[in-house]
Amino acid sequence: METTRGQGDPAPLLGPPGWQDTTRGTDVRLRCLSAVDRRTVWVAGADGVVLRTQDGGDSWQSVGPPDGRALQFRSIKAFDAHHAVVLSFGAGDAARILSTDDAGEHWSEAFRNHDPAAFYNCMTFGDDSHGLAVADPVDGRFRILRSTDSGRSWHEVDPAGLPAALAGEVAFAASGTCLIGRAGLHWLATGSAARARVFRSDDGGRTWSAADTPVRSAPDAGIFALAFRDAAIGVAVGGDYRDQSRGGRLTATTADGGITWRTVAGNAPNGYRSGATWTGHEFVVVGPGGSDYSVDDGAGWTRFDDRGLDTVSVAQDGSCWAAGEHGRVALLSHRIPAAR
Length: 340
What we know:
The chain is mostly beta strands. It has strands at 17-21, 30-35, 41-45, 50-53, 61-62, 73-78, 84-88, 90-91, 96-100, 108-112, 119-125, 131-138, 141-147, 155-156, 179-182, 185-189, 197-201, 209-212, 221-228, 234-240, 251-254, 262-263, 275-278, 283-287, 290-294, 302-305, 311-314, 320-323, 329-334. Residues 1-9 and 336-340 have low confidence and may be disordered.
């Protein structure tokens, strides 16, 4: 038996969370996901694959661009059952943003990167109109694109509004959640430099400030995902992509909107985590080594699944979905504990 969690007052939790696998539509690794509601979910990943369900995962339709097999999707935003935007990561013209208004029957190219020095990683939307996309530093600063028309067109933000990048600093394109936004606020996670940092913007991505975090940073290591409960309380998770079982300083929390970050003193996810979200009840983080949840704003964590997932997303109705390797897509549920 499962609870139903929608808008308004959330249903009480009847036990710890668990993943309920849905029918899988492909064996391709799915690296980004956007849930519209309990029935409508879009996922995307390697080899230009985009899948959509309208029956809660009982069946999936392949709706990716017919000529997109060379594209590697890392971010997706679904506005409804028909309109979605995807970003393919990489340098040069491998980085593109595509948009569909007819459920994937046709795709239009909203942006194509022509700068070989720009490597695009993530895309997010703070609301249904305003989106941002980020590329690793070019000429010493991260490059930000901005959309005000639901992803149909994109324009570069003046780089003077961003702090200088550290030597070697990058963003990670693991799950589409290194860049997140909500109602004008945006946060960007970084790593691979001397310090893992979180950039914050409170004006829709025009200007940014940067804060150091205690998360361990090294080549291929740092913060891979961010999630916020509200404008103040958030978590940052990551690890080392090349050494995914390595623990130690992989998680940090903030209570002031990302201005300052502190180490998690209690139990923390042990190993690399690539995706994070706030479900309305708890923070949930996922990675190839398992899933964890926290009901105390990130102070303590409990592992609840050992199978691999890469990305996680919550819909407006409160349903929480995740996806990962071998085409796995799963729905979060809370079950009544067994009688003692």
